[in-house]
């Protein structure tokens, strides 16, 4: 239950931060203020984020694997085998 509550709280905080973001993402967002816009900086290439997504996915899988191992009593079994 605590794991589900923690994941839900993290998701809720992330969504709340996205809603409260007051940044400008396009030139049109700036023009809606009613002030003149002299120019904008455009990106020439989209950054590759596949490595970051893969690392995040691996981290989530590792977190669940460790959590399952702790629930199954694996650390206690290892300590008894080494003692």
Largest sheet: none
Distance between the ends? 33 Å
Radius of gyration: 23 Å
What percentage of residues falls in helices of 4 or more residues?
55-70%
Question: What is the count of β-strands?
Answer: 0
Bin the strand percentage. under 5%
Low-confidence stretches: none
Query: What pattern of helices and strands is seen along the backbone?
Result: HHHH
Gross morphology is elongated
| Mean of pLDDT | 86
Looking at this protein, list some descriptive labels.
83 residues; mainly alpha
Secondary structure elements and pairings:
Elements: H1 2-20, H2 27-31, H3 50-71, H4 74-82
Explained architecture:
The structure is a single chain. The chain is mainly α and 83 residues long. It has helices at residues 2-20, 27-31, 50-71, 74-82. The longest helix is centred in the last third of the chain and has 22 residues, at 50-71. It is elongated, with a radius of gyration of 23 Å.
Summarize the structure.
This protein has 83 residues and is mostly helical. It is built from 4 helices and no strands.
């Amino acid at each position: 239950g605590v794991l589900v509550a923690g994941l839900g709280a993290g998701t809720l905080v992330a969504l709340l931060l996205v809603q409260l973001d007051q940044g400008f993402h396009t030139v049109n967002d700036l023009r809606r203020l009613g002030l003149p816009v002299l120019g904008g900086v455009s990106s020439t290439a989209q950054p590759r984020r596949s490595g970051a997504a893969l690392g995040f996915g691996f981290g989530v899988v590792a977190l669940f694997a460790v959590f399952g191992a702790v629930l199954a009593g694996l650390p206690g079994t290892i300590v008894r085998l080494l003692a």
